[in-house]
Design brief:
The complex is a heterodimer of chains A (about 475) and B (about 100).
Chain A lengths: L2 E12 L36 E2 H13 L3 E2 L2 E2 L2 E4 L9 E4 L6 E10 L2 E14 L3 E7 L2 E5 L6 E7 L6 H17 L12 E11 L9 E6 L2 H20 L7 E6 L4 E7 L9 E2 L6 E2 L2 H10 L4 H12 L3 H8 L2 H13 L5 H18 L11 H12 L5 H11 L6 H7 L8 H14 L1 H8 L6 H11 L6 H12 L2
Chain B lengths: L4 H10 L6 H22 L18 E2 L9 H6 L5 E2 L2 E5 L8
Antiparallel strand pairs in B: 2-3
Classes of the chains: A alpha+beta (about 475), B mainly alpha (about 100).
Chain lengths: ~475, ~100
């Protein structure tokens, strides 16, 4: 039997704030256990949560980027469940009034553009982290993660296959990084995905019973989990059994999903408005201000780059992978509009990346700013520098405050491209080697290498080889 | 009003509480009294029942500035029944779920 696959996603992304959602403990990964957990994070009696304004701003930013409605009076709710790494006995989340409603992201599929509806995105605090069997029969709890701000982004069940899911996730992952909303580091759990899957007979309008696969944190595992779960459900349905509504855990080692809890044991979260927190009022002025401060959205910028600069799609994608790189690209072309866009893009995405990797660093953290790169590329474009000379200088720039021109003189890398200077050298070489010159004129064109070599030797390697070749050919064919 | 047994069992399970049969009888009665009280409150007509907060008040927001608390750890952990290597120790819980 043929089945339609129906998939909806919930993504938890950790917001890029300095402090937690309701306390001024640091929101940073990897600290010594419990050194970033104060009395609020630990849920001590008598403490009160105070909302972090930056978390509200970042949630608003995401909402604007996906064309959503911002609830100007959203509110926090308590989600009650009992677990050792949730010390209060409830998670502060949002229920009936999430901050972001009814947005969408458009993805490219084999059948063209497809709109994925985003039902909501809500703010909530993360729980602590349990290490099971840390001691015999005992778990160890680290509350550093407790209270760190998450935005849970929930789609409608609009996906039909794993490819669409991965395309959407990659686009969302890029978007939150690009806009500075989250570092979305998947290894550190800053971008986690729950997948809801159900099957229905092909063409049917009735949704089947769904299973939820929780907390998968790599694109490859998400794809595998979907394939596996789809097969499992199809086998059940085809053998006359039914799918149980439940939460399942994906085990990457065994490539299988396992039941975590079925509906009978499902948590009853007993949501209610958190009496410790008043509604979060966001004024229209706040929203407008955030809209104005928002960088150009990556897909609009890609379109503009494609129209203005005649770059390949791959190169544009590569430039936009990091907003800083795209900004650099535009600043450099602003400083010197004569530079070919392709040359600039290639240098940012390929040559300078390679050097950054050698230094185990990034362009953003390097001393190479737009002005220095512009000067370097202008020297290269004018043929004052050879391509290998430019690379040598780029590397030197990483550890120096000198300008590219200064480094060029210091390292003696200036290329001789001036015709008069080159001709005076070439004429001497030809006069000193009359036999080879005659042989060349008689058709022994292989001797070109000899002449270029002599010019290189005479110029101590600084002659522009391309121009030298052209000039020798011109003189000897005259 | 008395609370049905299966509701008591459900609430006990959610709270991870082990109740004796006597506890259950006592709690069914106590919780029933609370429900009766709420029913009495509900009997009054209130013009705007959604008013859980003063409508004009809004949540004051906090600037995103850290206040380091790492010196507090040892002090706080003196309150814990057991802590080792900086982690709080609790009995293993088999059923998983951090949300």
């Amino acid at each position: 039997m043929n089945w339609d696959i129906v998939i909806g996603l919930e993504v938890h992304t950790r917001l890029n704030t300095r402090t937690k959602l309701f306390s001024s403990s640091l929101n940073a990964y990897g600290a010594e256990p419990n050194t970033q957990a104060n009395l609020v994070d630990l849920g001590y009696p008598g403490v009160l949560p105070v909302m972090n304004e930056e978390a509200v701003r970042l949630a608003t930013r995401l909402g604007l980027a996906i064309g959503a409605e911002i609830d100007q009076a959203s509110r926090m709710a308590r989600k009650n469940y009992f677990y050792p790494d949730l010390s209060k006995g409830y998670q502060i989340s949002q229920d009936d009034r999430p901050i972001v409603n009814n947005g969408s992201l458009s993805i490219s599929t084999n059948d063209g553009e497809k709109t994925i509806r985003i039902l909501r995105a809500h703010l909530e605090e993360d729980a602590g982290k349990s290490t099971h069997s840390f001691r015999p029969n005992q778990s160890g709890i680290d509350f550093n993660r407790a209270g760190t701000p998450l935005l849970e982004i929930v789609t409608e069940p609009d996906f039909c296959n794993a490819t669409e899911v991965i395309t959407y996730l990659k686009k969302l992952h890029h978007l939150v990084r690009y806009l500075g909303i989250s570092d979305a580091n998947m290894q550190e759990g800053s971008f986690r995905c729950d997948v809801n899957i159900s099957l229905k007979p092909k063409g049917s309008d009735t949704l089947g019973t769904r299973a939820e696969i929780k907390n998968i944190n790599s694109f490859r595992f998400i794809e595998q989990a979907i394939h596996h779960e789809t097969e499992r459900q199809a086998e059940l349905l085809e053998s006359g059994q039914s799918v149980v509504q439940e939460t399942r855990l994906y085990d990457a080692d065994k490539n299988e999903t396992r039941s975590m809890r079925s509906k009978e044991n499902a948590h009853d979260y007993r949501y209610f408005p958190d009496p410790d927190l008043l509604p979060i009022l966001i004024s229209q002025a706040d929203i407008d201000h955030e809209k104005q401060g928002m960088p150009e959205l990556p897909w609009l910028r890609a379109k503009r780059f494609s129209e203005s600069y005649a770059l390949s799609d791959e190169l544009i994608e590569s430039l936009l992978r990091d907003r800083h790189h795209a900004d650099l690209f535009e600043s450099i072309l602003q400083e010197n509009p004569d530079l070919p866009a392709k040359l600039v893009a290639n240098w940012i995405c390929v040559e300078l990346q390679a050097i950054a990797q050698r230094f185990n660093s990034s362009l953003l953290d390097s001393p190479l700013n737009a002005t220095r790169i512009t000067e370097l590329l202008s020297l290269l474009h004018k043929d004052t520098l050879s391509s290998s000379g430019a690379k040598t200088i780029a590397e030197a720039l990483w550890e120096s405050t000198a300008t590219p021109s200064e480094l060029m003189s210091k390292l003696n890398l200036a290329q001789l491209s001036n015709d008069d200077d080159l001709l005076s050298i070439i004429k001497i070489i030809i006069n000193n080697n009359p036999e080879q010159a005659q042989d060349f004129r008689d058709g022994k064109t292989k001797l070109m290498a000899f002449f270029v070599g002599q010019v290189m030797k005479a110029s101590k390697g600084s002659a522009n080889p391309k121009r030298t070749t052209e000039l020798i050919r011109k003189l000897l064919s005259a | 009003m008395t609370i049905p047994n299966d509701t008591i069992d459900h609430i006990a399970r959610l709270s991870h509480l082990k109740l004796s049969d006597q506890d259950k009888i006592r709690l069914a009665k106590n919780l029933g009294n609370i429900i009766t009280f709420i029913d009495q409150v509900n009997a009054y007509e209130i013009p705007n029942p959604q008013a859980s907060h003063t409508q004009e008040a809004s949540q004051p927001l906090r600037p995103d500035e850290p206040f380091r608390s790492d010196l507090e750890r040892d002090l706080i952990q003196q309150n814990a029944p057991a802590a080792e290597e900086g982690l709080y120790l609790v009995p293993d819980v088999i059923e998983t779920s951090s949300e």
